[in-house]
Amino acid sequence: MPSSTLSRLLASVAVLLLSLQPHSLAFQVSSQPSNHAVYKESPANRLFMAESEANYDTAKNDAFHDEGSNNPTRRDFFTSLASARLLATVLAPSSSAFLLPESAFATESTRSTSEAVITDKVFIEFKGIPSADGSSSSSSGNQRIVIGLFGNDAPQPVSILKQLVTKEGYKSKCKPLDTSRLLQKEQLEANKVYNACLETEDVIGVNYDLSTVWRIIPNQRIDVGAVSGKFVARENPNFQDGKSGLTHDAAGVVSVRRGDDGGYGFTIFPGGSDVGATILDEDNVVVGRVVEGMDVVERLNALPVVKSAGVNYMALTGGPNAKNAPSRACRYGGPMYCNENKPLKKVLIEKTGVL
User: Fold this and answer.
1) Which residues contact 56 (CB under 8 A, 6 or more apart)?
2) What are phi and psi of 51, to 5 degrees?
3) Please, what's the largest Cα pairwise distance for the chain?
4) Contacts of 237 (CB under 8 A, 6+ apart)
5) pLDDT band with cut points at 50, 70 and 90 for residue 213
6) If DSSP codes are grouped into helix, strand and coil, which group holds residue 229?
7) 211-229 burial, b if ≥16 CB within 10 A, otherwise e?
8) What backbone phi and psi angles, to 5 degrees, belong to 112?
9) What is the value of pTM for the model shown?
10) Residue 298 CA to chain centroid, in angstroms?
11) CA 353 to CA 345: how far, in whole Å?
12) Mode of pairing for the β-strands spanning 221-226 and 37-40
């Protein structure tokens, strides 16, 4: 018997039991004007309460062996339970009357990324990844990955990523000027950054040139594309979820954080961690997968990173519990260990483009 049919059968049995034995429930629920469920005391309820009050025998006789009441005995209850299950089992093959509708068990369907259609391809070339033998590599030929994008499943995020890998970039407005700096030096610097942003707002778009790999959690995630310089004052894109049902089901799946609090970057799932996949499924939108250069992904995944002694110092010092996007907080004396999981050696994006 298919699992879906079996689930529906069991649920139907439960509905049947509720209709046959409403008085056998331990608790009876009635509706009150306050819209809260209120438990009425019943003989079976008094039995459960008595167990915690060391009055089991008295309550048992009162609840199940009171000949002057209409309460069923324990034997009656289990007899009716067995009868109902048998009846549902016998009738199930020949009748659908006892089966709940299929829609009652509908869940959001998931799809494999191997089945998704690749509509576009982009390439990313890194600088600073050690070669497979551990030596530093200056050439970009063996530090390149090609990402196949799922334009049909995530059209809006894919459109933004395609702009970010071009020289023209993604046109984005400047963030409002922050005037809350306590130190004059910091406020003057913020003003300078804001004014520089306004000068290029309509001319230069945000792209991945010289952006960095800003976080690596081995086997869980590789976060790429922390923009810097003239782009830090730009508004973040708002990545929308296409509800495609695609998940992080294989190494090399590429995704972006849902919403506008994840910056401009994207995440590569290196594989090997169900926990990492679950977290990314909850927070990110799958936009593609690495089709060339998985050896580069493996080398990124193996890079040494900044690690504290297993203590979340950011939370202990009043900072956030986690980071959704790269931040310059360390520059201004932010929470301790704000560079957690940052590669010890800077890895840059040297070149990008659409294939």
Assistant:
1) 47, 50
2) -60, -35
3) 92
4) 160, 170, 172, 260, 264
5) very high
6) helix
7) bbbbbbbbbbbbbbbbbee
8) -80, 140
9) 0.64
10) 23
11) 24
12) unpaired
